[in-house]
Design brief:
Length: about 350
């Protein structure tokens, strides 16, 4: 097959020739169940159940001699002779005998063909090589060798079997959490999220805590995808609580609408106050006049008035002009002689 390009998958299949190992194994199984079975009966069953290769010209005698009558089909052959043979598992390792003979190529009476302390069944199921000593390999580079992946029940080709944001190795070696349970302490908070938020993943009492003091409990932070070890997950200067409850912006995005202006600098109500200033003043970022006194929040803040108190009729400088009149005239409500 030297002329086949390297990027084309190749494999070898066993024909029905008596010289093929799988055929020999099948013959042994059949004779083990019925010593009276004749050679021609075995040959008949093998050839009848074979999977023929459409690329092989079966009229050529030299090909018949070399390849037999197609690719062996042990499952169908055994089932037609005696259905109970299909379910045989001599070594009780979870791999049926026909699977060991034909698929994994391991011994039917040895649970660990390559003596690497990895059960043939485990290697077969997870895709490691049951014919090669690979106990100490770490194919997913998560800090657990194949042997310890088997012990812990984790996937040797997935560095985070339970998808909790912690690698299997970190769970076993560092945090002492369960690598096949995403929430080891059953508090509804994933182990990895708890670690990232500064909590112990083995403490079930974290759910209502507020580690970062932003007014959001741990379970609430999780629901929004924020962390509980910083009150401003996206770093836009507006804390997570205010983004969720006041500015209605995404606490995970510095610029929620992707218009080139950060959430903190936006002014959706055009009152002259940015979202950040509205949050600091406890005013409504979507309402120009939070207290409804006819004075915009921005004007009140700029002129040292309270945007949360109805004070349009007040006259702090006693010049005879109310705050509302001062606003309409563009004068200073705290200076009786603005000019």
């Amino acid at each position: 097959m030297d002329n086949v390009p390297d990027d084309i998958p190749q494999d070898y299949f066993t024909g029905t020739s008596a010289a093929a190992p799988v055929v020999t194994g099948l013959v042994a199984l059949l004779l083990g169940e019925d010593t009276s079975i004749k050679a021609f009966e075995i040959e008949k069953k093998l050839t009848e159940n074979a999977i023929f290769d459409s690329n092989v010209d079966l009229v050529k005698p030299e090909l018949l001699q070399k390849y037999g009558h197609g690719m062996i089909n042990p499952i169908k052959t055994l089932a037609e002779y005696d259905s109970s043979l299909v379910n045989l598992d001599t070594d009780l390792d979870g791999l049926l005998d026909y699977e060991e003979l034909y698929l994994s190529h391991t011994y039917i009476d040895d649970v660990d063909y390559d003596d690497d302390d990895l059960l043939d069944k485990w290697e077969f199921d997870y895709g490691t090589n049951p014919l090669v000593y690979d106990r100490n390999d770490d194919p997913d580079i998560d800090g657990l060798t194949n042997y310890y992946e088997q012990v812990e029940g984790t996937d040797p080709f997935d560095d985070d079997t339970d998808n909790d944001w912690l690698t299997d190795g970190d769970e076993v070696n560092t945090h002492l959490t369960d690598p096949i349970d995403g929430d080891s302490d059953d508090d509804t908070l994933p182990d990895g999220w708890e670690v990232a938020s500064g909590y112990s993943p083995n403490d079930p009492d974290n759910i209502n805590n507020d580690n970062d003091g932003d007014g959001l409990t741990a379970i609430t932070e999780l629901s929004y995808g924020t962390l509980d070890n910083t009150n401003d997950t996206d770093g836009d200067l507006i804390n997570d609580f205010d983004e969720i409850h006041f500015t209605m912006t995404d606490p995970l995005e510095e610029d929620t609408d992707h218009n080139g202006v950060s959430d903190a600098e936006e002014d959706p109500d055009n009152d002259g106050l940015t979202n950040l200033l509205e949050c600091q003043a406890n005013t409504n970022p979507y309402l120009q006049d939070t207290d409804g006194d006819g004075l915009s929040d921005g004007w009140e803040i700029d002129n040292n008035l309270n945007p949360l108190v109805y004070d349009s009729a007040n006259d702090p400088d006693n010049d005879g002009s109310t705050n509302l009149e001062e606003c309409s005239h563009g004068t200073d409500p705290h200076d009786s002689d603005t000019d």
